[in-house]
Batch of 3 targets.
Target 1
Amino acid sequence: MGLEIPWLKEASRRSRWLAGVSGGLDSMALLHVLKEEGFRDVVVCHLDHGLRGEESAGDAEFVNRVGEEMDFVVELGRVELREIMAASGASLETAGRKARHEFFGACARKYRCGRLLLGHHADDQAETVLWNLMRGSLGCRGMEALVEITMGGRKMEVLRPLLEVRKVDLERWMRESGFGWREDVSNAENDVVRNRLRNEALPLLEQIANRDVRPMLVKAAEVDAGWRELLEWAVEKVGVVDPQGRLHVKALRELPEILQRGAISDFLRSNGLEGLNSELLNRCVGLLSVDAGPAVNLPGGGYLRRRAGRLVFVGQ
Amino acid sequence: MGLEIPWLKEASRRSRWLAGVSGGLDSMALLHVLKEEGFRDVVVCHLDHGLRGEESAGDAEFVNRVGEEMDFVVELGRVELREIMAASGASLETAGRKARHEFFGACARKYRCGRLLLGHHADDQAETVLWNLMRGSLGCRGMEALVEITMGGRKMEVLRPLLEVRKVDLERWMRESGFGWREDVSNAENDVVRNRLRNEALPLLEQIANRDVRPMLVKAAEVDAGWRELLEWAVEKVGVVDPQGRLHVKALRELPEILQRGAISDFLRSNGLEGLNSELLNRCVGLLSVDAGPAVNLPGGGYLRRRAGRLVFVGQ
């Protein structure tokens, strides 16, 4: 086929898969890959965000037509994103993501399938890494090739088979194969930032470094995923929870700080805490120091308390 | 003093310290901080790279004068960097670093002091992170506030007390205090890239993100240092070396890949291997897979061999 997609080696052609398809290059490439590779039971999920009138409707018609020609099931959804934004006060990016999540969750229930394929590619990944890095707190984190996300109340397995493929290779393959796509489709993303990263920042960095920096950013995301895998392994390995389900302060103190944070974060989440942010986690880790106060209040009315050399989770 | 420098809380005012001082804002700020804070035994180490004729000589004279006014010992060195480059074929950056390392190593021997202070600040750190990220393989690695480096054959402890201080704060403090510095001093660095990152890339990213991104890059370097600390901890903790000093293949296979790499890398280095790069490490890690060949040749004539479920280091 001319595209290197590791996921294809293992993916079942007989299983049902949901595919998020906007009609743009990326997701149409995904769709054609599925068809060419003999996948039989694909549900093409397209959400019209209602943002660009007739053009939006044209995208939906295009996706519908191609999907039906492929003998795939097509599920079309439609929201009025501007109304949602006006009602909720959310940004375009946030409202769009929420609407898509709800739509995909509904598709998952309707078709009894929790596996969703998305068309993000390596150039998206490079932009994501750069953007996360600039926003802080996420380091070089990128999108994951396989990740569990709860969408519209349903646990979904989200897969990005094209994450290692360069956009230029997708485009070449699509052109050579004579496949079409819709330019400039609405994806309700924060387009201004994305476009400026793509069209200004990355070309400038490329010029300064005298090489294409996107593969380096993609590599950095892989390394970052490796670090997080190591942290998960270490949290499980380290055993700082005592038989009574409390955290052992002295054992925690001897660990690298990043592991202290990981272990405490894991402990709080496993006790059902939601809404843990970096600032709150800092205060919880602070309980390990001898001159700290004895407790940290948690969202929802509970608290984390230090007592007799242990950290105890007290629910509300 | 108006500058937040955590290192000052613990640093001994009576101990001897070497300070690398070019005469520019950063290192002059470092020097004045040391004087203001009551450090008594500072050796001001200045290397004239011989690159800009009279201006270089002027830098040396300036550093010498200020150092003597402070009652510090001043050690001036001089090299002809262009001649070194011509003879060795090294780049300006590489030759400059090597010359500085040899000079600082010689200072350490002469003054019997292995602690070297450098004036790198948070803006340098942000540029370093961005540059390392663009070059690949190093992720978000930055400079370290405290690191052991062998310079001119001598193990040195290199400290960067200003690494969390913004350049604008250093400059404000220097101006308010009436302290002078030399603009545009020769630092033999890869100035073109550095300057473009500083003057073009970072301002563009700042404009796109609508916030100063340098603190985020500095933060990313801290997180990266935390990850590497975790890896060191995990390599020590994991115990994959058997009593005969061989690596246990089955135990290694069960580890996250990044820890496999860390453990094998640590094992090779502890057996005295030098010149381990990423590509060679990949091949060594490959020995864990069942269908790999039985051995990988190492630089210097030795090899790493898989036998009876163990990896054995065989020296040349």
Target 2
Amino acid sequence: MQETVKIALDAMGGDNAPGEMVKGAVEAVNARENIQVFLVGKKEAIEASLSDYTYPKDRLTVTEASEVITTEEAPVMAIRRKKDSSIVVGQTMVKRGEADAFISAGSTGAILVGGQLVVGRIRGVERPPLATLIPTVKGVALLVDSGANVDARSSHLLQFAKMGSIYMEHVIGIKKPRVAIVNVGVEEEKGNALVKETFPLLKECQEIHFTGSIEAREIPHGGADVIVAEGFTGNVILKLYEGLGSALIGKIKGGMMSTFRSKMGALLVKPALKETLKEFDATEYGGAPMLGLNGLVVKTHGNASAKEVKNTIFQCVTFKEQKINEKIKELFTEKPENK
Amino acid sequence: MQETVKIALDAMGGDNAPGEMVKGAVEAVNARENIQVFLVGKKEAIEASLSDYTYPKDRLTVTEASEVITTEEAPVMAIRRKKDSSIVVGQTMVKRGEADAFISAGSTGAILVGGQLVVGRIRGVERPPLATLIPTVKGVALLVDSGANVDARSSHLLQFAKMGSIYMEHVIGIKKPRVAIVNVGVEEEKGNALVKETFPLLKECQEIHFTGSIEAREIPHGGADVIVAEGFTGNVILKLYEGLGSALIGKIKGGMMSTFRSKMGALLVKPALKETLKEFDATEYGGAPMLGLNGLVVKTHGNASAKEVKNTIFQCVTFKEQKINEKIKELFTEKPENK
């Protein structure tokens, strides 16, 4: 028999809460029997949403949390003060082992701070990064760190590379994932001080398949599977991905509507184009896990739909089943010298 | 009478040299009477290209340079050793005042190093940045620094902002350009150490119209006119712009060709779409000037066409006519305290 995976879901986070959160949870428990979801947040609002659906009552329940942390609040202060917020209550469940994973579409800052302060790091992990799947023309790549740690050091980047490799291999299923570091050129002498310091560490690392530097130009073309970046750079990459994608698609739609002739063409092109652009839509790939914690914390998009919530729940199941945290622990445990 | 603007053009640089370089120069001198171009490089090859065209012989001449610096060579070494290369010869003409500007599609590294070592900085300018125009849905924005200085400091970024503002206002013609710094959030407490140190300097600066932080997501949507970034970050932005644009357009073309119906539509949509995408094509906007030098040095794309070369020559004319360097000099000259 399959082991049940227990998910604490922040029902109050994001633009579409609680409606889409609840819907996503219902769809997940209805789709698979080994999932248990705790909807964390204001009981009344959640139950009102839940009343629309049919679902197994024993595997989808409400856990009361009276407060909500907004995206406007300073993260550290919010985590410290709002002890009965959906983020703190949900992350505490993970800390205590009552849940395997916590998912939220709420304040990224608060989720990251809570991940460190409430859930806590795996021993040996210096800075838990946020790992985000980004679309490429060949499939997906994992951008790690996509913004949890600005001003990270070379030892942190080495850990990002190792944890990212494990995730890409065992959750996404890419054997021997190609690891590359974001740089301003591919020649070995290129880079800023941080990249120059990190490069040899990655090159010597036995646990990863390091392929060298990657220029940002090659990321969308699928030049690597694990894209290692310091958090500031990673965040710029992630956000430019979103912004440039939406700007270009807007331009193209505008262009198609500019003449009578092109409008006719647009009608014919639309279905095929929609299918193609879906492959380049980041929301298809679930949320971004924070790697290296004593439990799993996943951030989904602020505008997450029920579909994304459901996919993220499935992603947590794979994470648990593939024993990702056990693998990370093994990696960072000092091994006795046998030589 | 208009003053003649003298341009030293690297005829040997880039993928399409000397053909497209020569063609662009011919078109420029034929279009405007106040332009003089020196084609710098191997006489024989340049003259073979030139023989195809009719042009005013007194305003388009060849300056011999027997060596070529390739993109594979280490820039500092190449500039020091290849004294008779088209880059060193052309930049020396600027240094001596024999030319107002030097344009090259060759090795970016060598052009930047030569700019500093051969042409030299304006007194007071600490680090000359590369300023690249990038397309947005509203027009263009100036990305400064797009890669000349990695690990730049806050005082450098402040200078980038000032020089970028002058360029945007007087060459591109945007009154009171909005200056923003690339950041991971728009709240004032957000950022890495460099941004946190630079932010107050920009805020207090009287010579620019600072609007605060900009997230990378907003750059393609036209959120600012002058985008201030440290060179590593700026280079990542520039290259991701190129890579994501080409990846998405490739995807869209593929999508349009996927079904019979969509192929028919593609034929109708194509002309309008081509026009729209041209607006998002960086090569339409000429080259990237290195700001803050004693003379003008402009880098064009490695695959620059005659059209881009011609546009870049016109851009140099505007730069001279608008007295950009005089304005920069004025900015960095210590003013006697009058208070």
Target 3
Amino acid sequence: MGGDHAPGAIVEGALIAAPLLNRKLLLVGKPDVLAHHLPKTLPSNIEVVPAAETVEMDEKPTDAYRKKKNSSLLVAVNLVKEGQAGAMVSAGNTGAANSFSLLVWRQIPGIHRPAIAIRLPNRHGGFVLLDAGASPDVDPEHLVEFAVMGRAYAKALMGRKNPKVHLLNIGEEPSKGNAFAKQAFNLLQQKSWFAGNIEGNDIYRKHCDVVVCDAFVGNVLLKASEGVAEMIAAFLRDAVPSKAHVRWMYYPVKWVTAPLKAQIDYAERGGAPLLGLNGLCVICHGRSNAKAIKNALLMTQTALDNELVTSIRDTINSDD
Amino acid sequence: MGGDHAPGAIVEGALIAAPLLNRKLLLVGKPDVLAHHLPKTLPSNIEVVPAAETVEMDEKPTDAYRKKKNSSLLVAVNLVKEGQAGAMVSAGNTGAANSFSLLVWRQIPGIHRPAIAIRLPNRHGGFVLLDAGASPDVDPEHLVEFAVMGRAYAKALMGRKNPKVHLLNIGEEPSKGNAFAKQAFNLLQQKSWFAGNIEGNDIYRKHCDVVVCDAFVGNVLLKASEGVAEMIAAFLRDAVPSKAHVRWMYYPVKWVTAPLKAQIDYAERGGAPLLGLNGLCVICHGRSNAKAIKNALLMTQTALDNELVTSIRDTINSDD
């Protein structure tokens, strides 16, 4: 029920994904509203789970948790807790998805702060950045936990065999950064898989697997990257004249912007898992279209097939 | 003498700028090395000031300051201190330029941390971001000082009459962010020109004049933005086939990428001033070409013509 184009785009994405999934898909929400978007005969692996309420996009998570015991979000979180679902995917209120998951599932022992892991593109197959926005106030020690979770992600979802971890910093040398980054560097340095500092431009230039930072920095980086890509797309569009008799000459521009779009389009990435909890919550962009939802569902299936949560639980205290 | 293409590109940029400047240009460095790049008869407003040593790009600022009393950087900083120059422009070791300026000129009374102000493009004429990298460890109070300096910049260099200040944050609402951002918000809120929080994507989408953040976040944002723009340019290049008999069909791509290049090219911006000191130091990108140096010199002249440093000194305690 959550997302700018919900439930239409969500249901559409689920219907596209259903035949590609090896498991059941539970659509949690108001049955009468969902019925408008569903075919009369449901695909064999889609089922509707009724939930009478919805958490609004701008609703305060704590209020929603207290007041709406039948919200689609809380019903979905409880399905995972009770073992009736393996994971939850949401394009709704991110803060609410984060805090409901945390409150109901709790952290994996050994993990103190959950983190959102987001896959970003670069010229070497991309990397995973965390925390992209879950835990704004953390200590340097928590970045070591993020690193272990990031390694589990890179193995389960990116096929990296022995993923290295970089610390996002404002210089490459060990002595660079603010007090927080210097302390994090010293802690990470004790790990065999630590690859040192990396700067904000080099994450897009160099090969890297996992990049860790606090949620404030990660969220600013993520959104600024998105903003620059959008601005460039807008400048490119503005440069194409609107008059039809000139416009056709610009047709070849499409040949170069189409592959670019595939590289930087958030919809290709699908979703970003919230890691560190006893359950898997995949957060989608609020403006997710059907394609984004489909890709998020496929990504979630890969995470489940590769037992991402179990692998974090198994390695959190032993990944040196 | 500093920069990846120094002194060739620096001298070339100075020669292009000289006829456009209403003041004298002092080239500080090794006379015999500079002579190779200079015409036999110098333009009337160019003069060489000899300096026997140079600070290397990777040299530790404190070491260089102690050991090299005749470095071109220290000679230039002293020329400003003694009133023989109005400002210094450098494409060399940024850390050294920052710390030499701080050590010799000291802060303007009322300012506790200097900040690098960098102008970034957006779809509404751009904005100035600070701190882009000068002071990694700051308190929330220092962001108020950055805001006042940013306003002086926006008036002197961007022609904004009553510039507003936004706080870079990970959400728009007042309650958003980490502890640092929340404290900064409360302090900034007391100012008439404070316009609230702004997110990393919205700085490139919405109209804004001045955006403040700490140097760690600012530097990550700046470099990530640069990295994304470079990556997109690379993807666009890669999409154009290299075979000549197909390549010509892609010619119109240039029509759209040329204006884009002008918008996002760092060389168009020229340089970024270090603000808050009793003197003006303009930092250029290490890889500055002649065009970047020319633009940095023209920007510096505008800053001097509009008395940027004096205006910061006059408003730091009264800009409410």
